[in-house]
Structure formats: C-alpha cells, structure tokens
Amino acid sequence: MPAIAALVLGIVRLPELTRSPLWYDELFSVGVAGLPFADALRRIIADHTNPPLFYLLLKAWMAVGGESDQWVRLLPCLFSMMLGAALVWLAREARSGVIAGMLAVALATASPLSVDLANEVRAYSLLALLACLSLAATLRDHTLRTRDTFALMTLINVALVHTHYFGWLTIAAECVVGTVWWRADGRRVLQSAGFTGLAFVPWATAVATHALGNPAPLRNVSWITPPDAAAPLWLLRDLTGRSGNTAADLAWLAFVSVALIALAFASWRHGAQESASRNAAVSKVDTPTANANSSSPVQGSLALLVIAGLSVPLAVWAVSVLSGHSIWVQRYLLGAAAPVALLTAIAIAALPPRRWHVAAIVGLAWTAVACGALPRRAPTKVDWRRLARRIDVSVGSPREVFALEAFTAAPLQRYARPGMRVRIVPSLDSLPRGDAWLVYRPESFAAGSPADALRELGLTTVAALSMATLGQKIVAVRIKPAR
C-alpha cells in the first residue's frame, strides 16, 4: 500500500516536472547547492529564511546528476511522492480504517497546492513529508514506548526543524496533545522536543548572530502581506481539491465542514460515554488497573490531526491578522497537508449511512473531478523560456538585455538565447545609451512606470512585451537613445 500510494501521487506530479521553468527562488536553491560546502553554509545563514537540510540534500543530488531542470526538480517530486507512503503509515497509526486511508491518499493526490509545490526546488515537499512522518512516529511511540520508537521520533523531528522553521508548529501540536490528552505518557513527546531543541541550538545561534549584525534582518520576509478573512478556508480548499467551479468548490467546503462538525460531536459523545464507563469501573473496583489508560489511541490521534491540520493554520492566521507582522504564506503551511487529508477522510467516512459508505464514494468522486482539473489550472510562475524567446525573435532585436534586480536577471540568464547577454544594473541611471532591452517588475517602482525616468535620461521606448500570471507580471521594453 505505501508503494501504491506513492505511485498514485506520482501520476499527477511527474508530468509537472517541466510545466514551467525555474524561477528566482528555485535558482537561488540551485546556486547555493552549487557552491563549496563552507560557502553554501554561509550563504544559507545569511539568507535567514530557511534551515540547511534541503539545500544540503540538493547539493548531494546535483553532485550525482547535474543541474538540469528535470534533474533538480525530480528531488522534491520524489519527496512529494513519498508523502503518499508516509500518509499510509499515519493512517495505520491513527487506526483510521481502510476506507478513510484510501480517501486520504486520494485527497492528497488531488491537492492543487501540493501539486504546485511538488516540483518546486525548495523545501516545501520535504516539509510536508517530514511533518507527516513526525506525526506517525509520535503515534507509534505513544503506542509502543520503546527506545527505538523514541529515537525515530526524535530523529525525524530534528530533520523536520532543519528543513523549515514552520516544522516547529508540528512539534508544538504534538507537545499539546502529549500534555493534554496523553498526560504522563506525553512526557516522551516533551523530552523528544527538548532533544530536538538542543540539536537546533547551533543553527539558531549561527542565524541569530548573523541577523544581529545585519541592519535589515527581516528584509527577505517583508513581502508577506496579511491574509484576508477567508484565507484558512481557501487553504482547506487547496489541500483537499479544487474543481475550478466556484459553486462546486463552496459546496465541497460545506460538505467537509459538516463532516468535521459531525466527527467532533461524535468524538465528544464517545469521550463522555467512555469517561462515564471508567468512573463506574473505578467506583466498583478500587484497583490501579481500573484507571490505567486515561486516553484511547483514537482520541489522541484525532486530537493530533485536528491541532496539526486545523488549529496550527488558524493560529498562524490569527497572529498574522492581529499582529503587525504577517507570517501567513500558504506554502509555508504545507506541513498541514497530511493531517488535513487524513482528518477530512476520517470525517467523511464516518458520515451515515456508514454501511454503504455513500459519503466516502462522494469524496472519491470529488477527488477524481479535482484531479481532472489539475492540468487546467492557471500557471503561477512566469514562463521565462517564452519571454527570452519573444525578446530574441523581435524584429531587429538587440542582444543586450538589462535587468534591475536578480529576481528578473537570474531566470533570463539561465534561459537566454544564444548570443543574448543579460546583465544586472543597479538603477535606471546605470543603463547604457544604446539599443537594448530593459526587463523589470512593475511593483519594483513605488509609483508610476519607468517611462518618465527613461525620457529624462534621453531614452525612448520603441517596443514592449509583457507576461503575467496569477502572482507575477514581468515587463520588457526595448529602449533607444531619443533623437
């Protein structure tokens, strides 16, 4: 089943390997991985935004197969496929049942957010995989309580927090469940978190030391904007499938919400009945074994899935809305992918009439529709290959291309046509007074466009090209000296 689940996820992820060219963040990863080890580590520390594990794995991966687009993207794609196998393990440890387990894998397969990030040469796929493995290993340790399960849980957690800082949110969810639901048995979770923190101290110290000596340590996250009121709802939609039809998507979210509410009510009623049974047993038999198990594994599993999958994103959303510094970025929350998929599947499979699994069939039908919609979704990244080709084939196109920032220069340098020379200039004043192309992002200018500034410099625009996606717009203008 783990192998089958990994292959199922691969069916919709492998064809996406080269759907779009690498963009700046991915090129940053490739550039860092191509540096000597010491230089790479210094560059990662100076970036402040990500721990080093993914970069080091990518470095080893590139040492084997080079840095072609297909090869570097295959690594995160494999991590994303392995999420299917990890989800099967999590479903087994949570004792969700076969139907819920199958539906969870289907939901993870159909998630447009997971598919979009599956092939991005960043740490997101590894974050989702390790977060799922951490939850499964925590449940495993809670069941068996051996040295091996404790060591495995701790090792996965150390890898998790060295992959992405948001990995600490998964560990925090485990600590809450260990403290509130598992009580005495939860000390193992807290001890594991303590060892993880000790292992994280060297990296945290290095980053903090560098940040304290930097005049703008948070410049790399200054672009994050506060989320809107419906952001958690859109995250749930993007983690469980999207058809492309607004009415259908809202109906699906309503269906999922009803299922989750019904599951919460059923769990509360089951917990109340179990508590009453335990109290009755204690009143009849005054022995230590009558009150030995204070929480069933099912209750602890559901609580863990709820906190890791739903409460953590809600907490991030609340902090982003109420504080002056937003930390809400959907892709940073990909660690919630596995718990959301499994919790949603459990809730749907538990809806009546359970004998005929009508709700589960509806869920599987929805995932089929959502998977069919994946190839039709709008691109989220600029096609830099196409932009370079359009510049190259323009009539009388000059070979000189200038960019105002690395964000636009790095992709153009990678996909430049033969003979095309791409360089970065610090400002418009640094532009040569010859025939050339200027490439920029409109948002790079605080107000207006660079047209007025170019005229003041004695330059005129004779041609313009632009490309836009859901999140980016790039403009290329051909400039010449004004007569």
Mean pLDDT: 89
Query: What Rg is obtained from the alpha carbons, in whole angstroms?
Result: 26 Å
Low-confidence stretches: 282-298
| Structural class by helix and strand composition | alpha/beta
Shape label: globular
Any overview of this molecule?
The structure is a single chain. With 483 residues, the chain is an alpha/beta fold. It has two domains: 2-376, no CATH class; 384-481, D-Maltodextrin-Binding Protein, domain 2 (3-Layer(aba) Sandwich). Helices cover 62% and strands 7% of the residues. Strand 4 (459-468) and strand 5 form a beta hairpin. The longest helix has 39 residues, at 246-284. The radius of gyration is 26 Å and the shape is globular.
Describe, in short, the structure shown:
This protein is an alpha/beta fold and 483 residues long.
Which characteristics define this entry?
D-Maltodextrin-Binding Protein, domain 2, 483 residues, 5-stranded mixed β-sheet, alpha/beta, single chain, 19 helices
What's the topology here?
Elements: H1 2-13, H2 24-33, H3 37-47, H4 53-65, H5 69-94, H6 98-110, H7 112-118, H8 124-144, H9 147-161, H10 167-180, H11 187-212, H12 231-240, H13 246-284, H14 297-322, H15 337-349, H16 358-373, H17 384-393, E1 400-403, H18 406-415, E2 421-424, E3 436-440, H19 451-456, E4 459-468, E5 473-481
Parallel strand pairs: 1-2, 1-3
Antiparallel strand pairs: 3-5, 4-5
Helix pairs in contact: 1-5, 1-6, 2-4, 5-6, 5-7, 5-8, 6-15, 6-16, 8-9, 8-10, 8-14, 9-11, 10-11, 10-14, 13-15, 14-15
